[in-house]
C-alpha cells in the first residue's frame, strides 16, 4: 500500500506518556521492524497527536453539565459561618432515625448496583462524546493523562475512537495517524500487563479487512499474536476474511492446504471454516468440512453457524454426518435439537411448512426428541414470516408435550395475526390461551378487542369485556373507546352508502 511508507515513518516518532506515565519508547526489535529510511525531523508527539494544550472551554462544554451550581446556590457564603443546628435534633436514637438510616443504606446499595451495571456504557458514551466534540487528538490526550488506573474498558474505548476517526477521515495521512495511535494503545496495554483480547483487537483487524489494508493487517496481527499467543486461531479467522476480501486466491489456498500439516489445530480449522462460511466460498468450505472434527469445535455458536451454512448450501450429507458424530460424542439432546433447527430453517428452497417438516423428520430419523427451546425458536420463525396457522400447530405440539408457553408468545402470535390480516384467527388464538390455562392480561384483551373491532365483530369485542370481569380484570377506557369508535365508523359508512343509494335511485 502506498500509505505504508507514511505509516512506518509515523512509527519512528517517539510518543509521550499514555496512561499512568507509561514508558512508550519503542524497543530495538520494533524499531528494526518499523523503520524504513530516515526518521522525519518533526518534534515528538503525544499519543493523542501534536497538540499539547487542549482547549479547556471545549472540554468544559463536554464534561460539565449545564446549569452547574456553586456553593452560593446551596446557601453558603464564601466566608465561614456557624452552622445553626438545633440542640433538639441531637438526642437518643428513635425508631424514625432507624428507619431513615435503613432507607439511606438501601439507597446507597442501589446506587452501587446501578453504577456497577452502567459504568462501561457510560464511560463509552463519554469517550464517544469527547471524540465527536473534541476530535481524536484531544480525546486521547485527555484520557491518556487521567490520574486513575487505565483498565480494559478505557483502552477499548480509546481504540474505538481511533477506528471511528480513521473511518470518517478522507485524509490518508490522518487515517494513518489514528492507526498509529491505536498501535500505541496496544503497546501501553502490553507494558501494563493488560491482556489483549478479541474485544480489543477484533474491531481493529476487521477495519483492516474492510479497507483491504494488507500491510497494516500483517503488522498488527504479528504484534497481537506475540503478545497473546492464545489469539492465534482467532487472528486466523480475520486473515482468511482478508484474503477472500482482496481476492488473493493463492493465500486462500495456502491457508486451506495448511490444514492437517504444520501442527494446525482444530481451533484454527474451525475459524477458517467460519470465515469461508461468511464469504460463501463453497469449494474451500467443502474441503474443510471433509477434514474437520465437529466434536472438537470449541463453541456451540460456531457449530450453529456451521449447520446454518450446511442448510444454505443444502449439504444434507454433511449435516447428517455431523449429527451422528455429535450424538456419538454424547452431546445433549437439547444441543442436537438446536443444530437440527439451525439446519432446517436455513434451507433456502423450503417454505415454512416444509422447513417444519424437515425439522420433524430429522428429529425422528436420529431419535432426538425436540427440545422446548427449539420449539420456541420454530414458533418465532413462524411468526416472523406471518405463518399463523403453522404457529398455531407449534403451540398445539408444545401443549401436547407439556412445554411451557409464556403469555408473551401469544402476544407475538396476535401481532402476526394483525400483520397477516387474517383477523378471524384471533378466535383460535384466544381458545389456545384458555386451553393452556394462561392468565391473559389487560394488554392481551386490548389486542384481541382491537382485532375483533377491525373485523367488525362488535358483539365479540363486547363479550371480551365480560370475560375480563370474570377473570378479575378491569376494562379500561381505551377498550370502550375502541369499541365505540368502531360502531361510529360502521354507522358512518352505512349512512354514506345509504345516501349514495338514494341519489342513484
From TrEMBL:
UniProt protein name: PROP1-like PPR domain-containing protein
Disordered: annotated span: 22-49
Keywords recorded for this protein, A-Z:
Repeat
The organism's lineage is: Eukaryota, Viridiplantae, Streptophyta, Embryophyta, Tracheophyta
Database matches in InterPro entries? PPR_rpt, PROP1-like_PPR_dom, TPR-like_helical_dom_sf
Q: Does the keyword Repeat apply?
A: yes
Per the UniProt entry, what species is this protein from, by scientific name?
A: Papaver somniferum (Opium poppy)
PPR repeat ranges, renumbered to this chain:
371-405, 441-475
| Domain of life of the native organism | Eukaryota
**Can you tell me which residues the record assigns to a coiled coil?**
none
Which segments constitute the PROP1-like PPR domain?
378-490
The record's annotation in PROSITE patterns points to: PPR
Q: Name one Pfam family in it.
A: PPR_long
